[in-house]
Amino acid sequence: MNTGDELRAAVSARRDLGPEYENEVVDSFLDKMGQEIDRRVDERLATAAPKAGPVNQTVADGQRLALAIVSLVLGTGATLAFVLTDSKAPYVIPVWIAIVIVNVIFNSSRGKG
User: Which of 1, 62, 91, 106 meets the CB 3.0–4.6 Å disulfide criterion with 5?
Assistant: First the structure.
């Protein structure tokens, strides 16, 4: 039964039963309408639920991009600092290896969630 049919049935029942049953007829109608609203909301939530995945994916992609940018900036800064001082040049390779390891660990742990 649709909403209009429910309302017509409630009005008809009120006419048949008289004003002494008006509260019961109204309560019954409101209860049915509440159930119908709940059903429609549940349907909409069920169709909207898949949208949560891409949002979470976008956040993860943003975190990966941020880590990549920070890694490049810090790695480049460290490389310039080591190269310009000449005495610390051998430490450039371990710094970049550490940056790669951090990125690999971060990205592999994000794929498991």
Answer: 1
